[in-house]
Design a protein that fits this description.
Hydantoin permease, 77% helix, 454 residues, mainly alpha
């Protein structure tokens, strides 16, 4: 029976460390880099309202399901789904759900590491005063030159992968726990410092109005789908990370309470990032809807021309690195756990092997910004193709199948036993959300990214 096996990889020492680790997995570049610019592109407060509703109705139920599956299986996602499918008397092909999540996380890290490398590079640029007094054109040139330089990108990509694998190699208690105990409090301290600075810009109220004052006339069907999709992706669902972290969760810890804390902390980081960024953007007469370039092309202009900009520029990009590292650790952990279980090797050897493969794949992303810029897959660069394949196809499909497996394939009394909710009514609400609402919503996201809605 698969019931709550103790993982061979170790266990979290407390509920608090699991919350830190899972929040670290969820909090990443998506919260600090992506969330502010998609809020800017989709009208502000109304988008935030829809996003928060989606976190509650879609993100939390699926996160509970994925954590519950991980704890019951007690293994890497591939072996967890395989053993739980056998327990439920389901077809063995369900094991491919575990494979898909693990591979998705692996592929995401290969390009995520390159983007995180840009953040490392910008820490140094901010520290050496590269933004000070520079014009928009000069700041843009810095970014263009970074993407054109294979050597610089490969260097920072290597540093980031090295840092990630050195943490993962030390195991659950000795590596991941110790890292997140430092990274997550550090991330919140940095965010609060940046919010405190934003309060001094004279545009803090304007930033809050933009973020929290809904104007539903600004919403479009596309905006709703974007909010739905981001609520799902920001919680690291469908990529095996939460499942493998759940496998290290002791039986006596409440999954529901823990997941609510994680979703709350993840949402708080995204909102705090908006509260820090928008007043700085507005105070410099810049555009909130600047898209992907908001962080690397727009904010450096502000940092270069404001009082204390040197310090706050350094703090901001250190914050980005912290967020990226906490997520990267969870992206590679499912593959490392599988490699250890499959080949019965030491964790260090598994990390060297998996890290080496991820590093090699990352070179494709580096080259896609320069020498491979004209090489396309279905009309997309190597980086664009990997991003579309994982974020827009594999993760929604993974989340959809997790909801189906937890709500329809797994025996309900097993799910009830693992979740251990206070009342039958609470369990029935969760079951309804995971059985009907979440799959339908994720299916809509899936159709949206495939262009069915135009």
């Amino acid at each position: 029976m698969a019931n709550s096996k103790k993982s061979m990889h170790g266990a979290w020492s407390s509920r608090f460390t699991f919350i830190l680790a899972a929040t670290g997995s969820a909090v990443g570049l998506g919260n600090i880099w992506k969330f502010p610019y998609i809020v800017g592109e989709n009208g502000g407060g109304a988008f935030v309202v829809v996003y928060l509703l989606c976190v509650v109705a879609i993100g939390i139920p699926i996160m509970m399901a994925e954590t519950m599956l991980g704890r019951r299986g007690g293994q890497c996602p591939i072996n967890t789904i395989k053993s739980l499918a056998k327990e439920a008397g389901a077809h063995e092909n369900w094991k491919y759900l575990g494979w898909m999540g693990t591979i998705a996380g692996f592929l995401i890290l290969s390009y995520y590491s390159v983007i995180a490398g840009w953040s490392l590079s910008y820490v140094l640029k901010a520290f050496t005063g590269s933004f000070s007094g520079e014009s928009a054109a000069q700041i843009n040139t810095l970014f263009v030159e970074l993407k054109a330089s294979q050597g610089e990108q490969i260097f920072w990509h290597t540093v980031f992968i090295g840092a990630t694998m050195s943490v993962v190699a030390k195991g659950v208690e000795g590596g991941i726990e110790k890292a997140v105990r430092f990274l997550m409090p550090g991330l919140f301290v940095l965010l609060f410092l940046l919010v405190a600075y934003a309060m001094t810009t004279g545009y803090y109220t304007e930033g809050l109005k933009f973020l929290f004052q809904p104007d539903f006339s600004e919403l479009t069907a596309s905006s709703v789908l974007t909010a739905m999709g981001h609520a799902f992706f920001t919680l690291s669902l469908g990529m095996g990370a939460i499942m493998v972290y759940g496998s290290y969760l002791p039986k006596d810890i409440s999954i529901a309470k823990t997941v609510f804390w994680i979703a709350g902390a993840d949402t708080a980081v995204a909102l705090l990032a908006g509260m820090a960024i928008f007043p700085i953007v507005f105070s410099n007469g810049l555009e909130a809807s600047a898209g992907e370039g908001l962080i690397f092309q727009i904010l450096p202009i502000a940092f270069g021309n404001m009082t204390g900009g040197w310090l706050f520029g350094v703090l901001f990009f250190v914050l980005l690195v912290f967020a990226a590292l906490s997520s990267a650790i969870s992206l590679i952990e499912p593959a490392v756990a599988w490699y250890i279980e499959k080949f019965k090797v030491a964790r260090t050897q598994a990390c060297i092997t998996m890290g080496g493969v991820v590093w090699l794949m990352g070179l494709g992303t580096v080259f896609s910004f320069n020498s491979w810029a004209d090489v396309t897959f279905f009309g997309l660069t190597f980086f664009g193709f990997l991003d579309f394949l994982t974020a827009n196809l594999m993760l929604p499909l993974g989340g959809f199948l997790i909801a189906i497996f937890a709500g329809r394939v797994m025996h309900s009394h097993h799910a009830k036993e693992e979740l251990d909710l206070k009342t039958d009514q609470h369990f029935e609400v969760w079951m309804f959300l995971v059985k009907y609402i979440a799959p339908a919503a994720v299916f809509l996201v899936f159709l949206g990214v495939l262009g069915v809605f135009g």
